[in-house]
Amino acid sequence: QVRLVESGGGSVQAGGSLRLSCTASESTYDYDTNCMAWFRQAPGNVREGVAAHYRGGDITWYADSVKGRFTISRDNTKNTVYLQMDSLKPEDTAMYYCAADLSLTQCRRVLTEGADFDYWGQGIQVTVSS
């Protein structure tokens, strides 16, 4: 069983930056977290994939709405994935969730409704004011 703990959320004005962190622990196998991703859900909206990183090949995916503003990265020595969020907009306001899975297939699905990750964090709030 993998435990994911997010940190770094908060409130910021439009144009500002935040960095989210997600640390994985209690994993028996490193490959349980081959794919690590960020999702978000705003009130009244469906959950959407924001970004993902696959360990093998250092591959990344981004939603069109965040391309050029958000950067996903990971530190395998710390079992941590980061989401650097710059040029934040009020529409980025949401609960952000970290997720992990061993599968490349899930990473490829992160921007679709078919994403079904094995492990999820509790979520962390990001609020961007205008």
Write a structural description.
By secondary structure, this protein is mostly beta strands. The chain is 4% helix and 48% strand. Strands 2, 4, 5, 6, 9, 10 and 11 form a seven-stranded mixed beta sheet that branches. It has a four-stranded antiparallel beta sheet with strand order 1-3-8-7, with no helix packed on it. The mean pLDDT is 94.
A few lines on this structure:
By secondary structure, the protein is mostly beta strands.
The biggest sheet amounts to: 7 strands, mixed
Assign the structural class, choosing from mainly alpha, mainly beta, alpha/beta, alpha+beta, or little secondary structure.
mainly beta
Distance between the termini: 40 Å
pLDDT under 50 segments (min length 5)?
A: none
The topology string of helices and strands comes to EEEEEEEEEHEE
Mean pLDDT: 94
Radius of gyration: 14 Å
